[in-house]
UniProtKB/TrEMBL annotation:
Organism expressing this protein natively: Secundilactobacillus similis DSM 23365 = JCM 2765
Transmembrane segments: 6-27
Principal cellular location given in the protein's record: other
Coiled-coil residue windows: none
Official protein name in the record: Competence protein ComGF
């Protein structure tokens, strides 16, 4: 009787080990990809706050309604900036917050936004965002609110 493995037994053992390692690698990459998306959403949130609180523009909210904020800047006196929550044309399921400039350009600040609530707290802009995947963000910004019209205090 021979001791050891035959060639076929060795090939089958190597194949089983390879399938096991590939399964582990695939599972790890899926988990890491999901965590990366959560970090990307968090980074986009802080970039949004950075744009709104930028000392370069020193925004002030002059009007609020359900889907947009009108922001004025002492640096740009022609027309106001708009911060809008809208559904994108390309994909019906994706929503985004977009900052529209007085010169016709726009800056998509954060994508895959399910719901946005803005309100006035302590004469400052308060934001709450809910992402499509359920992650929630909220912040009391340093952006002052001086509403031209007193209606529509909340989203």
């Amino acid at each position: 009787m021979k001791q050891g493995f035959s060639l076929i037994e060795t090939i089958i053992a190597i194949a089983v080990i390879a399938v096991g390692l590939l399964t582990i690698q695939l599972g790890t990459s899926i988990v890491m990809n999901q965590r990366q998306r959560e970090f990307d959403e968090q980074l986009a949130w802080y970039q949004l706050l950075g744009e709104l609180e930028s000392p370069e523009y020193r925004f002030r909210v002059t009007k609020m309604d359900r889907y947009q904020l009108i922001l004025k800047s002492p640096r740009v006196t022609k027309r106001p900036f708009l911060l809008r929550h809208r559904r994108t044309v390309e994909t019906k399921a994706s929503h985004e917050l977009m900052l529209t400039t007085p010169y016709g350009g726009y800056l998509p600040l954060i994508r895959e936004v399910k719901d946005v609530t803005w309100a006035t707290k302590k004469n400052r802009l308060y934001l709450e965002l809910t992402m499509m995947k359920g992650q929630k963000f909220s912040a009391l910004t340093s952006v002052p609110v001086g509403l031209d019209q007193e209606k529509g205090e909340k989203k």
